[in-house]
Amino acid sequence: MGNWEKEIATEQNRANEVAAKITKAAAAIQQVIGNANTDIKSIRKHFWDDVTVNLDNADEIGETYTSIKQQSELLNERERRQNHSFNRIQLLKRLNNSPYFGRIDFIEHGESETEKIYIGICSFYDEETESFLVYDWRAPISSVYYDYPLGPAAYEAPYGKISGTLELKRQYIIRNGEITSVFDTGVTIGDELLQEVLGGQADSQMKSIVATIQKEQNLIIRNDKSRLLIVQGAAGSGKTSAALQRVAYLLYRYRVKLTADNILLFSPNPLFNSYVANVLPELGEENMQQTTFQQYLLQMLGREFDVEDAFIQMEYVLTAVGQPGYDTRLNGISFKSSLEFMEMIEGYLEELMKSGMIFTDIKFLGRVLISSQSIYDYFYGLGATRPISNRMKLVSEWLRKELRRYERQEVKKSWVEEEMQYLDKEDYLKSYQKVSNEKRMKEDTFDDIEREQEVLAAFIVKRRFRPLYKKVKEFAFLDAAELYRRLFEKEASAADWKKICHETIANLDDGELLYEDAAPFLFFKEQVEGFKTNTLIRHVFIDEAQDYSPFQFAFIKKIFPRSKLTVLGDSNQTIFAQGNEVGLEVVASLFMEEETEKITLTRSYRSTLQIVEFTRKMIEGGDEIEPFNRKGNKPVVLQVNDEQDTADCIAETIKGLQAQGHHTIAIICKTASESREAYLELKERLSLKLIGTGKTDYEAGIVVIPSYLAKGIEFDAVVIYDGSKKSYGLESERRLFYTVCTRAMHELYICSKGEISPFVAETPANLYEQRTWKESFHSRKSK
Ligand SMILES: Nc1ncnc2c1ncn2[C@@H]1O[C@H](COP(=O)(O)OP(=O)(O)OP(=O)(O)O)[C@@H](O)[C@H]1O
């Protein structure tokens, strides 16, 4: 046996020993779970036996409450511990299958012994030898594995910087306890392991990359200091992956004070949520909160308006080119996305400090109780220097007081007596009990019948007034919509402003809020009513950040004042510029320079060398994108003649791709309407799924998907349904085309009915193959 074989045998022995210890530890936890289950069942069963219930007087009620609370806390605590043990078992199962993926031999300066550190998805401590057999990949010392080649190395420990020498770096692939590959590597993380990982097939769910995190990705993951971390990275450079491992890192590093509930990820669409849902659980962590910006807006806006869906706006922008009103709408979107518009709103709010607020009458049974004018007078009577939101609060308090006064007066009105006839038994019973209680407390004698009538009258009025109090609490006496509408009676320097105003007002009058108005309207409303900030969230992640406008960034910053922000994007994938300024470039201006860090990722991991060489030619600065050296076929452009031809061509191409072993194949269309068309053309020939905006779970297979829903996701093979000049001919469509092409991992086919898109035509011809589809079919058959 040679030295290397001996070394591998030693490694396998160690892996076996570690696996045996993990199995033993898992069995011990299983035992604890079993005992705890019995314990929990018993607490549940005897819950009320151990609680003393006595409701005779206030003291006894207090004691009863405390006793119930203690008992339920005991139960909660047991259940929490049980959950923890359960999660640990799951993690140990995974660890048993693959206990570690890396090893470093590190000698600290001043020490005589080299430490062998094995790195895996979580730590494993052996009680017998009192040592860590596996270190968590997020432990301080593990960063050496990701950051250094052999030689001098250092890491940040909680008690300061530790320097030393890295003597060995080894990588393993272990499956079901068997070491299938071992590599020693001099560089940071060797390419061999990456080759193995990236050569695999796309999954319906994103995977964790902890075994092969690259140095520059590690900078993103472990960044502790910045308030704003901007990651600008090429398509497939691992931005989303780094973001998710960063969440796992933060949960580990700050586990005492940070939980998954304190982290929020804004994702591009609901489908993406399901695509990334497995990464954190795979690492033994809970998923962070996830939402889309649209969902967040809707939740805050309530039902005041019919809010346009972001994807409907997108569909309009992509399909209505040249239609009347199109340019005005685009100019409107552009202006309403800008910080200039935010300043305009702030200027308007300044004016409203002095005059101009619009309130509505508070009516009761068709009568005006408190007129809008008296609310107006009260509001401005509070002084012109007091902030608007503060005055709104005072007005609301005043209104509640006024309502109480009217409520008392109302009791004597004749309608109350009439309504009393229709009360049910329960109401009578309630009033009888109230009167009896009063009697017991006061020991006064009074006329029971008369008092009961009074109580009943008060009940009736209270019930009728309840919605009024609710409205006052929710500031429904403010006509925010009309106020926002008046903004469009002002002057602004935006192109096409008059027409924008006309269109906006028409929509508002129809009760519709265009998507570009949603964030500004909410911002305005929040400024008036008092910003509902979210201080629970401590870390906000924004993926696909190039699609956010400067306005939206500034708004997000305001909503989460205590939060750090990680912004990940690629300006080359801006599928639709929301204005002249790209948010990703403006976001830095919202924070101070010293609290901001920017990291650029240029290496692309998703696609083969051939696909990256082809796609990077389409964009400015593309030459800086470094492909990972994984070889594949050149992209293929397929010339087709008509719809029939397209359908035949795509069906045959896909059958060929499936025969090659590809499982996730996407037919990417430009829009949802083109996707429907494609689906109808193809559904008799292939078993495929149509993905629409409502789709929330992502599955493997053949899918037909609109461009903007494919964002952030990847497929083994991509077929562009129509890559002709007609479909992707405008300069504004360049980045969209680049985005769809870069979804492919192994194979890229572009069908073109008629003249091919200039973005392909401009690309050097040696970077792709061009065929008619029949040639393509025959050339594949003859292979
Ligand atoms: N260090 C790594 N090790 C292994 N795989 C990696 C690594 N970094 C990225 N990948 C893989 O590359 C692919 C692209 O990663 P990811 O989706 O995170 O990139 P992205 O920059 O967010 O892409 P895009 O902007 O195009 O949506 C994924 O399959 C991911 O697993």
TrEMBL record:
The species this protein was found in: Peribacillus cavernae
Gene Ontology annotations of biological process type: recombinational repair
GO cellular component: cytosol
Keywords: ATP-binding, Helicase, Hydrolase, Nucleotide-binding
An MF annotation (GO) of this entry: DNA binding
Protein's name according to its UniProt entry: Helicase
Entry-linked InterPro entries: DNA_helicase_UvrD/REP, HelD_bacillota, P-loop_NTPase, UvrD-like_ATP-bd, UvrD-like_helicase_C
UvrD-like helicase ATP-binding domain span: 212-608
PROSITE patterns for this protein: UVRD_HELICASE_ATP_BIND (PS51198)
Superkingdom classification of source: Bacteria
Record flagged with keyword Transferase: no
Record: residues binding ATP: 233-240
